[in-house]
Specification:
mainly alpha
């Protein structure tokens, strides 16, 4: 097992390098870089992309202009543009910039945001509590509900209970998360009906003055609606996965043998079937959490005005804040690859009979 883990760790390096190369290369062809963002704002255009639609600028003879690659550079001296390029490092060729960036990342130097005057690490740490709250609680709730429900559906396979719960789960899965989030806001957060939950934020303004119990209540009061909206679609996959895993195990010979020996149904199900059926479900917990943590919260964070990593990534992409984009990509890519290894270790922990060394051989 040690050799397998070592090989997987060594594969992290070329995989992560490939991710960074592809994304860095793609960014070179995307219009509207950070310098153009600044120039557009200085020219009063507000958004750099407005310049690509055309529009009147200063006369050619009065501009830096006509031969500049920056659409927002009209009327600005060439020396100023060159100074901006030097400050952002764009006076160097892309290959040199990429090698410098990766060299800094190896020393955990992820640079500073172009537009926020704060290091990328500090920015990520600042936004982390929101994303951890959403990812952790939604994953835990999904597992706590889906596993018992899936087991019950497997036991009652084909019954009225199984049919109705399957229909409900599929409908819930089909509803887009953002649409369900808006529905929750309208119903329970001061829309057209009830003002039960707060509209935005992770805590109240007076959170620091609350008692420990008051802080806990206030925290869960704020995250209740975002968690429900984020979790609703996760029930279907986990519940059906649990049900199908149980059904596959129940039909195996060892279950028939256990029943023939006179073991009770609960002993058969929870003493023998559960461990084998839950292998794929429990072992996939890290991957599910990372998936919710990184991928599922962007729209939810925006709708509920939560300042988390999803929203940070979206804003960085819009503003072309390259240090934030590539820094978070490197960090999260590394975490995702490590979580893949942890998932494999979870398989071995749940069922020691699994040996990845023999499977590779």
């Amino acid at each position: 097992m040690g050799a397998y883990i070592l090989r997987r760790l060594l594969l992290v390096i070329p995989t992560l390098l490939g991710i960074m190369i592809v994304n860095f290369t793609l960014v070179q062809f995307v219009p509207g870089g950070p310098i153009e963002q600044i120039l557009a704002q200085m020219q009063g255009e507000g958004d750099v992309f407005a310049g690509f639609a055309g529009g009147e600028g200063a006369p050619a003879e009065e501009t830096f202009g006509s031969d500049s690659e920056y659409i927002g550079a009209r009327g600005l001296p060439k020396e100023f543009i060159e100074e901006l390029e030097k400050e952002f490092g764009f006076d160097k060729p892309p290959v040199e910039r990429f090698l410098t960036m990766m060299g800094n990342y190896l020393t955990l130097d992820f640079g500073e945001s172009y537009f926020r005057s704060i290091s990328v690490i500090d920015l990520v740490l600042e936004k982390m509590p929101v994303s951890i709250s959403l990812g952790l609680w939604s994953t835990l709730i999904a597992y706590l509900v889906s596993i018992p429900l899936g087991i019950r559906k497997a036991i009652k396979d084909g019954s009225t209970f199984d049919t109705w719960t399957s229909g409900t789960i599929i409908v819930a899965y089909a509803i887009p998360g953002f649409l369900f989030a808006i529905l929750l806001l309208v119903l329970f957060a001061g829309g057209s009906y009830w003002q039960i939950f707060p509209l935005r934020g992770l805590t109240s303004d007076n959170w620091e003055s609350l008692s420990l119990f008051g802080k806990i209540v206030d925290y869960f009061w704020h995250i209740a609606l975002p968690i429900i909206a984020l979790t609703i679609s996760a029930f279907a996959t986990l519940t059906l996965l649990t049900k199908n895993s149980f059904l596959d195990e129940i039909k195996k010979q060892y279950v028939m043998t256990a029943r023939a020996k006179g073991l009770s149904e609960s002993k058969v199900l929870y003493g023998h079937v559960f461990r084998n059926a839950m292998l794929i479900v429990i072992a996939g917990f890290p991957a599910v959490f990372i998936g919710v943590f990184f991928g599922g919260s962007i729209i939810i964070e925006t709708i509920f005005s939560l300042d988390g990593l999803g929203r940070l990534g979206f804003e960085a992409a819009v503003a072309r804040d390259y240090p934030v984009i590539f820094g978070t990509l490197f960090i999260f890519g590394l975490m995702g690859l490590v979580v893949g290894i942890i998932s494999d270790l979870m398989y071995v922990l749940v069922d020691p009979r699994i040996d990845f060394e023999k499977r590779e051989g």
